Request: fold
Amino acid sequence: MNKSLRFMAVPTLALAALALSGSPAMAADGSYQSTLKQINGSAGSGTVTLDVKGNQAHVVLKVSGMPATFMDAPYPHVQHIHGGAKGTCPDPSADKDGDKVVSTTEGAPSYGGIVTTLSTSGDTSPAAGLDLKVAGQGASYTIDRTFELNADTKAALDAGTAVVVVHGLDPATLSAAGQAAKSDLVPSLPLAATSPALCGTLTAGQMKMPAGGANTGVPTETGTDTGALAIGGGLALVALAGGAYAVRRRNAAA
Reply:
């Protein structure tokens, strides 16, 4: 087998997505930023900037300190801009089933459904989650790309409710109940695989560091595959089938 390529078999999921306008949305030029905070005991860190010019948006997402492997392959973290809800990140009180993990579904009332899927290439709409070729990005990576701004993302930015969420936890850091639980989205996966790990509300203007100087880190590697996970307004699971994800090995940073 080519050493640069490994295949990790995981279930393919399809979820209901928020309806989008068929045309890109024009917006006033501006810049939005966030320092991502940890959720569910995550050890990761990250920053994101979103620069908007007309109907074009340029995102730079830098993540480090995330779980590195899953099923003996680079961990396929997925990330999105969510919107249409409170525009906040969930706190521990969002855990309603008592397993000490805020699942994607439990966090949705805070950050809402996907309005843009952030990936290294390809479609950025919520419907891109139906493709589900998830990039094996590992512990540290950068996503740097330009895409057309859709109406739902523009509305979330204008309303201050646009939230970036990065998914994927280290199962070993969860409670016993959390380790035993299955994903609320894909029951054949562990809860850790799809639960939120980092979260931050996009705000206009200069990014402010949190008190205590959180370690944002500088990602050392860049993912090369497409990542997508669609979580709709009601987060309704509409299909589940088998699939395979191609993930690339990376050389260790010098």
About this structure: The first strand starts at residue 5 and ends at 15. Helices lie at 104-111, 151-159, 176-180, 191-194.
